[in-house]
Design brief:
Blueprint: E1 19-23, H1 30-39, E2 44-46, E3 50-51, E4 66-67, H2 70-78, E5 82-88, E6 91-96, H3 97-105, E7 109-113, H4 116-125, E8 130-135, H5 139-149, H6 154-168, E9 176-179, H7 185-200
């Protein structure tokens, strides 16, 4: 929720750091959006998610994800090192706490890529964050995206699409929706940039406390 304190921009100071949560159904292109934001040098701290799933061709450890063993991930859970975590299609995924807190303490904006269930958990912890739902143009387009990844069988794709239908219903809990249409990635990234720019100009800015 917005604070009762005026935007520090009015006093010539930097604006409050934002916590931006980008979520949406599996296969919608969250990774592609974040990669493009990095290529365009968005001035954010991009939190790298930890996962126990195997690394895929073309991925880089520490950049795309922190790839850890199941045993190491369970240790992180026990030691409360994660801001949020979940089991996604049989593998662990979670957000390391220290990265988020250190970045925001230094005044940097933070972007999180997270699944829909994880976003709901995070909203309870940090309702002042900016929640952006990345959506496909249609279910058919989402099926094509999943098929092009060539990492799932047809049965697994059907299962993901069933889950995605439920995840689409959760859009009502987000602040913004951005369509990530095929071959129009820069358009989606530009809309995210516009949202963030507008949030920075709020008279009473969001103040995130974790």
């Amino acid at each position: 929720m917005p604070s009762s304190t005026l935007n520090p921009l009015l006093e010539g100071k930097p604006p409050e750091p934002l916590l931006v949560v980008i979520s949406g159904p599996s296969g919608v292109g969250k990774d592609s959006v974040l990669t493009r934001m990095r290529e365009l040098a968005f001035p954010f701290h991009f939190v790298v998610t930890a996962t126990s799933r195997p690394i895929r061709p073309g991925e880089t450890d520490g950049y795309d994800y922190h790839f850890v063993s199941t045993e190491r991930f369970e240790q992180m859970v026990r030691e409360e090192e994660l801001l949020e975590w979940a089991v996604v299609y049989g593998q662990y995924k979670g957000i390391p706490k220290f990265e988020v807190r250190q970045a925001m303490a230094s005044g940097r904006d933070v972007v999180l890529r997270i699944n829909v269930d994880g976003a709901a958990t995070l909203k309870r912890m940090a309702p002042e964050a900016v929640f952006i739902f990345l959506a496909p143009a249609s279910p058919e387009e989402l099926r094509r995206r999943l098929a092009l990844r060539r990492t799932e069988t047809p049965a697994e794709i059907d299962r993901r699409l069933a889950v995605a239908a439920h995840e689409m219903e959760q859009v009502v809990h987000f602040d913004y929706v951005v369509l990530n249409r095929e071959d129009r990635l820069d358009e989606a990234v530009g809309e995210i940039r516009a949202i963030i720019t507008a949030e920075k100009q709020r008279v009473f800015p969001r103040q995130v406390r974790l």
